[in-house]
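Write out the 3D structure for:
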Amino acid sequence: MAIEVAGYGLNENLPLIGVSIWDMLVAVIALVVGVIVVRLIVSMLGRWMVRAELSELLVEFTTRILRIIMYIFVVGIALSLMGLNMGAALVSISVVLGFVLGFALGDTLSNIAAGFMIAVTRPFEVGDYVTVNGESGSVQSVGISVTELDTPDNKRVIIPNKSVWGGNIVNYTRHGTRRVDMEIGVGYDDDLDHVIETTRELLTSDDRVLSEPAPQVAVSSLGDSAVVLVVRPWVKTADYWSFFFDFQKKVKQTFDDAEISFPYPQMDVHLDK
């Protein structure tokens, strides 16, 4: 007994589309199986790349690209099983894509290529704090065409990969230690040796300051109203901002107790009679 659906046999071509119900079922089954196989392959590749200790960004970028390519391949097989002439279709698609990729997707292809270079060269990892294209934040992800940052005030910044790769990249957390550069102005009447010694004692009393490299305290310049000292201690990267803010407060309190002055900008005016 022949099976019919809505009055049409399984092998009977439907009007308008010219495809039988059986061909459609086979195509759907092939599509479902293909999606499952693609997910398994991509998952296995991702786990292998992780075990090989490859960059997290490279793993994410590679698996995304492979997933898209394989999905296109699966869709092509499903359409072929429905009896469609994929040869003629591919020729037409290739002509259309030639114009689209040449004009509309020029920037997209540049972003994809830049994303691949970022994933391979690894100028930063997920979680690093960086400045790229004038924006600063923690790296959340590097996608096929965009890089996403979270700013300290919790804003999400999305930057095209070609802008990231095509400009300077400053990675603040790549190394385990950082130098804190500060300037302090003191009065011309203050004893500079006393000022320098007091500042050194303040640095050595803080456990966050590293002994190697040794912190530097030196006279930088003779300003219009102050003698300017540079203070350059080294700390762990994770301690950078906590130390920076704490040190500003301690310097003010310690210098006040030691009667070291912070001069205000001033100007001497001479009047001729």
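The radius of gyration is 33 Å.
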